[in-house]
Amino acid sequence: MTFNTLDLWYASPLVAVTLTGMAVLILEGIRKNNEVASWIVTLAGLLAAGVCTVLSYGSDQPGFNGTFLHGTYGSYFTMVFLTAGFLTVAVSPQYLSRLTIHHSEYYALILFAIAGMILMASAVDLVIIFLGLELMSVCLYVLAGFYRASKQSNEAALKYFLLGAFVTGFLLYGIALIYGATGTTNLITIGKNFAEYSANSLFLLGVGLVAMSFSFKVAAAPFHMWAPDVYEGAPTTVTAFMSTAAKAAGFSAFMVVFLRSFAFAGTNVNVILGWLAAASMVVGNITAIAQTNVKRLLAYSSIAHAGYMLTGIAAGNPEGQVGIMFYLAAYVVMNMGAFAVVSLLEREDGRGLTLEDYAGLSTQQPVLAALLSVFLFSLAGIPPLAGFFGKYYVFLAAVKAGMTWLAIVGVLTSLVSVYYYLNLVVLMYFKEGRGEVAAKPAKVTLIAIGIAALLVLEFGLYPSSVLNFAQRVF
């Protein structure tokens, strides 16, 4: 394999993130307990990667011998990952310091996880997707158990690692079957001869294993069982990153394979994906009603949102593609904001995470209560916030694809979700309680949460600001 300087320019966001991660490690090696410097370097590196993404933005250009595709699709998702990473890093110091786990390795792991995500979104080869997915996953395994003094955190890391490693085997076996049926792992080559391969049972079996692996990574039912325990046990800022950036990365790979490469629209494969979407929406929303822990509630909510986004993939049309990309951008900021507020109420001993702990929050912390309400209303899909338009676009895609039944399931389950989202708002505003935060919110944390809230409003009031970029991809 050969590459040139132009390939490096196309991959400059990936290079910037990777070099920043290495710089953080070197900085920690030179001087121990230098977390503040590592935090600043990480934020600067993410901003630099964002600048590189904007400057290198352009039409599709294959690089690294046709394994890496620079273009609007990869750039869009790179900005989504960088936004999620920036918000996560911005709100992390106060939370990590309170738990006495503020170490520079945390930032390096976040950066290398983002590097893996960028690889997944920009890859046009199944092997490169696998490498990106594993780079991301290994970092997340460690991050899930970052709070080593917590048994729950250790349990979360172990469960995630064991199940993730198990699913990795299925992914590799699926890729091997696809290679055996086609003679290549390059998605562009497979896409050009898709009609020839689509009737091959070996190829379809490989596709099924790949779809199952991706469904696990995005926490779609029935491959969702790990998510509630891992989300609850992991440090809250890590949970925020996993539930947003990692889910976006999983869907970026899902779309690369099932929308941009394999033309399964209108076939039984997409019908199966539709049933996975329906199962995720039903299981996620129904089970969330019974939760009393906020992190578990948001975990089951995340499963439901995976179902909404799978609806766009099942539709398999341009509306579905654009709808998923808009939904992911909206979901990242609204879920990140919700978890950021949760991290402020969580205490060192794990208290502050039940629904009752939010009673009276509007009296004690009116700003935080208002911000959390915005995120919850958006997650519920109440107009004119970003979440409403995300659901509208994917449900519209399902109707246009002749899958009206799936859109009906989505609408009905969305109505169910309104109950448990608004229940939390009612507790904050209409029930007496202490509603105390674990520590006074730092200015940078409030700013980051405020930026997330503004983006939720902006995407809702001006959805074209995101749609214009998403429509250029296809």
Question: What does this entry look like structurally?
Answer:
- The protein has a two-stranded antiparallel ribbon with strand order 1-2.
- The radius of gyration is 21 Å and the shape is globular.
- It is 77% helix and 1% strand.
- The protein is mainly α and 474 residues long.
Q: Which helices and strands, and how do they pair?
A:
Elements: H1 5-10, H2 12-30, H3 35-55, E1 61-63, E2 68-70, H4 72-98, H5 104-122, H6 126-144, H7 151-182, H8 187-192, H9 194-197, H10 201-217, H11 226-233, H12 236-258, H13 268-289, H14 294-315, H15 318-345, H16 361-364, H17 366-380, H18 386-400, H19 404-430, H20 443-461, H21 464-473
Antiparallel strand pairs: 1-2
Helix pairs in contact: 2-3, 2-5, 3-4, 3-5, 4-5, 4-12, 4-15, 4-20, 5-6, 5-12, 6-7, 6-12, 7-10, 7-11, 10-12, 11-12, 11-14, 12-14, 12-15, 13-14, 13-19, 14-15, 14-18, 14-19, 15-17, 15-18, 15-20, 15-21, 17-19, 17-20, 18-19, 18-20
In brief:
By secondary structure, this protein is an all-alpha fold. It has helices at 5-10, 12-30, 35-55, 72-98, 104-122, 126-144, 151-182, 187-192, 194-197, 201-217, 226-233, 236-258, 268-289, 294-315, 318-345, 361-364, 366-380, 386-400, 404-430, 443-461, 464-473; strands at 61-63, 68-70. The chain has a two-stranded antiparallel sheet.
List keywords for this structure.
474 residues; mainly alpha; two-stranded antiparallel sheet
For the secondary structure, the number of strands is: 2
Helix and strand sequence:
HHHEEHHHHHHHHHHHHHHHHHH
The helix tally amounts to 21
Overall geometry: globular
Identify low-pLDDT runs.
none
What is the overall pLDDT average? 90
